[in-house]
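This is your field. Pick holes in the following sequence-structure pair:
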Amino acid sequence: MSSVPLCACARAISRVAVLAGFLLLASSCGGDGKCIADLCITEQRIGLDIALSSTSTGSGRVDATYPEGHSCQFAAGSTGNHQCHTSFNDAGAGGQVFLTATPDPGSAFAGWSGCTSVSGNQCTLTFSAASGDTTLSAVVVFVIPSNLIRLTVSAAGAGAGHVDVDQNVGAFPSFDCDFPSASACSREYRNSAGSGIVDLEASPTSGSVFVSWTGCTPYPTRPQRCHVNYPAPPADTDFAVTVRFDVVAAACTSPLTIQDQFDSDAGWTATAITSGGSPTQSVSFQATGGNPGGYRQMQHVFTGASAIAVYHYYGTTTYDPGAQGAIDHINYFEDQIELNPPSPGAAVGTGFSMMQGGTRYNIILRPPGGAFTNTAWETTLRVNLTAAAFPGVNFSSTGGPITFGYFRSNTNTGGGAVTLTHGIDNWRVEICR
């Protein structure tokens, strides 16, 4: 650190000093930093070093912007350390340095480490008020991409269907998928040319219906067809596309419908079953934010590794096969959403539930796993549910009264504190006789 006395003197200035690019004016001052007749201010200057290291297979440039407008550049290669030094007036409040990474042609920026914060290709380093020279460090990574384009297609829903994948622009290889026989199918393409477009077309099998795409852009006039656009090299890109097929409901003349659009939370009960710890659950009615209007919000709270399943039943209306007629099949519908997931991919188990004679009968809503992660409202259904779908239930005229509802479940395998918040709206059961 260096100290330079600056005096605001009324008389003529006796000497001029230049330090680190700044013109500093000083008059004759005493050893204590004061002018004979005027006030003298002492400027504190500190040195700031940026130590940049690289673990790259590629190369690029890093631009550093310091306080007071200072800047410098690094040529970041596959190995080595680089330094940039400046000095500036430290007002005692600290400050920030901004590093911006730009890859060379044929390379790609892959990330920063050691930064206070990162936004895209910019690294921010923050330093506190210093009493001496300060060194900040960061690591930048540039890579040489393999120019690999990977497309994975998976399916959701209880239905079945076929997906054809063909290039529209470019040379991506064609392939096809059959669901539900395949859990997912994918292809890789090493792109040595320009950008391209891949088309996907869904065809439901008999008894199923196409519902929606996620992860690609549907064509407005052909909703069963969608596309993904892949970039020109250098780039490694993964595309994950999901097609949803659901089962077509069997004919049901004048069904008896039990439903709740959640204008309130009246009539509902919730029973939690837990294991391994003490997870808790809560339920609240939300007047807005539903699909549309109000909805029922649920929350599962974990303090460690444990599991919870919560059974929600609508006690206002039951169905008695003995008094009201035997049941041929049931169609079930609900809208569901996950709110503020604690981590990407955090899922909530979901299903339709009935109770007859004190026994619960359940079926998951989203085969094969039964969990959902959608942070937007989504309609989910299971249709054509006969007694065979619920071993032990009695849909005949000798069966007892049935109460209908749904369940939600979670398992916290990683331990620690986790909270999952989710919602339900437009709950509906159609009883076909």
In short: DSSP finds one helix and 33 strands in the chain. The longest strand covers residues 40-54. The longest helix spans residues 321-324.
